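Deliverable D4.2, example record:
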Amino acid sequence: MSEEIALLRHTQPGVALISPPPHHDIYSIEDLAQLIFDLKQVNGAEVSVKLVAEHGVGTVAAGVVKALADVVHISGANGGTGASPLSSIKHAGMPWELGLADTQAALIDNHLRARVRLRVDGGFMTGRHVMVAALMGADEFSFGTAAMIAEGCIMLRACHRDTCKPGIATQRPNLRANFTGTAEGVAAYFVYVAEEVRALLASLGLRSLDEAIGRVEHLRQRTVGDVRADSMDLTPLITAPADGAAPRRFVVSDPIQKPRSALGDRLRADAFRPIWDGAEVTLAYPIVNADRAIGAALGGAVALEFGERPPRGTATVRFVGSAGQSFGAFLTHGIELELVGEANDYVGKAMGGGRIVIMPPDDDAGEPVLAGNTCLYGATGGDLFVAGSAGERFGVRNSGATAVVEGTGDHCGEYMTGGTIVVLGSVGYNLGAGMTGGQAFVWDPDTLLMAHLNPALVEAERPDAESMEELRWLVERHHELTGSLRAKALLADWDTASDHFWHVLPIDRVRRIEESGAGRVGSSS
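Output generated by the structure prediction step:
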C-alpha cells in the first residue's frame, strides 16, 4: 500500500488491510436504517444501496426503501474488470434483467416505487442495454467496464496485482505514468451511447427516456430458433403490473426520507455559532432513547467549515438520560459530549475528533454497562472515555481514536488499523481479530487474556517503560474526566496494577520493536 492510499485509509504504508476503515458491515435492515439515518443527519446525504441481482432481491429492496434509501442499485452478474477470481466473475449473482424485474415488481406491489430511484448495472455497453433497462423500470444506469475501456483499459484482468500496464489500477508511479486516458474520450463514448438511445426512443414513438421508464409492454420475447432458448418463458419479465395506474418510475421523494433528529438539530442551532465565533459555550439537555445520532448534525456543520482543522471555539454539551443509537456519530474537533446515563449501540461511530465521556449516575448500583455494541465503528480520531463496560465489537475498524473503557464483549479491536484502546476490565473472546494497526492495553488480573486473544495477527506482551507512561496518562485522564472508581483504585496502587497490564499489538509491530530492542542491546555491548 502506497503512502497516499495509506493516508486516505488511515493506516500504515505497506500493510495489507483485511477489512479497511471506515467501511461498515451491515447485517440487518435495522443496521442499514440506522446508518442511513446517521448519514442524513450529518450532511443531508442522498443514500444509494447496492444489491446483487438474485432470487428474492425484490423483497430486500422493499426493506431498503423502507429504511429510507433514496436509490436502490441492482448489480448484475456481468461486467467487472477481472480483479475477482474467475469463479466469482462467472457465478456471482444473476443477470441484471432478473434482479431488475423482481425489484420493480416488489416495489410496485408494496406501493414504494414512486419514491425511490432504481439504478442498474451489469456489463452495460450500448444504448440498447440502456433502453431495455429503462423499459423494465430502471431510472438510472451505471457503466463500469466500458467506461474504463474508453479511458485506456485493455482488460489485463490483473487489477488486484498492482501490475496494470495502462496505469489505471495501480499504485506504482512508473506504471501510472503510462496512463493516457482523457475525459474527451470517455465523453465521446457516452455521446454515441446517447445517440443510440435517442434513435431507439424515436423508433418506439417516445419523446424522452423518462417516458420509456417502466413501459415493459414495449418488450417482447424474441424467437431465435434454438429449441432450448425458445423454451424459456420470459413472460414474468415483460408483463405489465396488474394495477395499470400504479407508478412504474420515480416520481418524488417522500418527506419521511429526510428524517431529522429534533435534539440534534437543536444542538447544532445552539452550538455552531459560538464555535464559529471562537467562543467556549456550555450547554445541557435531557436525552432519551429516541434521540439518535446526537452530535452528528453539529459535527457535520463544523467539519464542512473547518475540515480536519480544529475550529476556533469549543462546545461542551452535557446530557442526562439514555442516549439512542449513534451517540456522538461523526463527531469532530471542538465538540465535547458528556453523558450521565447510558448509550445504545454505535457510540462514536465514524468520529474524527472531539471527545465523548460517559459516566454512571450517582445512584448507580455498580459494575455498570454504559455503552452498547460496535462503539467507535470506523472512527478516525477523537477520544472516548466510558466509566463502565461496553458491548461487542468495541473499536471495530478504529483507525485513530483513543478510548478507555472498563470492560468489553467479544471481538474488541476488530480490524483496527490505528488508535489506542485501554480496557480496565474483562474482555470477551476474539480480541484483536483482523487487527493490523493501533494498540490495546488490557488490565488482566485474572490472567484470562491469552485464552481470549486472536493470535492470527496480534500478540500480547508486557508494556515497556515508554508504553507504560502513555498508559498511566490515559488512566489518569480517564479518572479526571469520569471520576472512575476503578481508575482511582488502579492509580492508588499503580506498581501492583502495572504488573497485570498487557500490551496487545499487531505481530509485525511486535517484531519491529523486538528487532529495535535487539539492535540497542547489540550497540550498547
